Amino acid sequence: MANLKVSPDIDTLLQSASIEAARNNILDTRSVIICNDGDNIQDKYDEAVALAAGGATNRADLIVMSGTYSGITGTGNNYVSIIGVGNRDYIQIGGITLDVNYGLIENVFSSISMTSNYADIKGVISNTSVSMLENFGDIIDCSATTFLSDIENYGLIEGCESTGTVRSFGGFSSSLNDGTIKNCTASGQDSFGKQGVNGVTQNCTSVNRSFAATSSNASFVRGTYKNCKGGNNSFFGINTDTSGVRTIEATFIDCTAGANSFGFVNFVGAETQFAGSALNCTSGDKGFAAAGTTGGTSKIINGAIIENCVAGSASFGTFNGSFGSYNEGAVLRCRTTEIGATPFSATGTGIVRLCLDGDFDEINLG
């Protein structure tokens, strides 16, 4: 049998390097760097960055095998994809910190911190946080204790979860969703913050004070919320702003919340106006433009429509005694569980049509 010939470069490498180093370098290519357990992942990342030098036309992949690694830090624009191979739980990286990211990050157990993201991030799990200031890519099937708390989202966030008690999915005041968030879950109050006109939040679940819940974390409530579920004081259920009128312009479809939701106010000098629409939604007591006993004013204004919705007592712009609520819009085919009081109201241009009280008696006003 003839002797096997190898190139002089590989022969020199095999003679001078350890078996592990030789194996790693043989597997590396002009666009792929392999990182094995025991390697310095920062060095490997830097090698991949060197391969991707030249900007957006050059890309490189850092393939990370099972192991426990220190962190990765990159400056400037990142064109390196970081891809875990194998069981994600055993591909543990001590943090990925980048400036502007254009590289896929997939199937790793690591915290993430970056300024801007333009690429896909898939299947990343962290027991600390995933954070970025703005997102234009797809973030799919990811989870962290604190997840995207302060973010402007113009891309897609889907199938993700926040497992801690800190507000997530844009819960802080500087955040904005003008993209799509769907099939996501948050376990911390004040999650899912303010939303722009292009924003869609769909099939998401959270706890109390969620979905653009408060005047401190939502300067406006716009876009579409569909099939979302929150607890008490959700869907702009807390307004403490006395500097001007806060307006709800969103469309709510098939959404559910606890008491004091969909435009509740209970603060002297604050005013909330419901100017959007709600279809097939459910609230507890004091839902859909209601005011509490402490003070404040809540109105369903002319042009707003609340249709086929259900709520408890003192809801739908009802004004009685200390409740500063008014209905100048249209409440259609809605039902309240309240018994023994006037459960609906119509002031000015307001109308109530084909609604039912707690005794299932039909109510038509205005």
Overview of this structure, please?
The protein has helices spanning 8-16, 19-27, 41-51; strands spanning 32-35, 60-64, 67-69, 72-73, 77-78, 80-84, 91-93, 96-101, 105-106, 112-117, 121-122, 129-135, 138-140, 143-144, 146-147, 152-153, 156-158, 161-162, 176-177, 180-182, 185-186, 200-202, 224-226, 245-248, 251-253, 264-265, 271-274, 277-279, 290-291, 297-300, 305-307, 310-311, 325-327, 330-332, 335-336, 351-356, 362-365. By secondary structure, the chain is mainly beta. Among the domains are: 1-103, no CATH class; 231-366, no CATH class. It has a 16-stranded mixed sheet. Strands 4, 5, 8, 10, 12, 15, 16 and 19 form an eight-stranded parallel sheet that branches. The longest helix has 11 residues, at 41-51. The termini are far apart. The relative contact order is 0.05. The model is unreliable at 1-7 (pLDDT under 50).
**Percent helix among the residues?**
under 10%
**Principal-axis shape:** elongated
Secondary structure tally: strands: 37
Structural class label: mainly beta
Number of helices, where a helix is a run of at least 4 consecutive DSSP H or I residues: 3
As laid out across the biggest beta sheet, the strand order is: 1-2-6-9-11-13-17-20-22-23-25-28-31-34-36-37
Strand content: 25-35%
Which consecutive residue ranges, at least 5 long each, have pLDDT under 50?
1-7
- Rg: 27 Å
Overall average pLDDT: 90
Distance between the termini: 100 Å
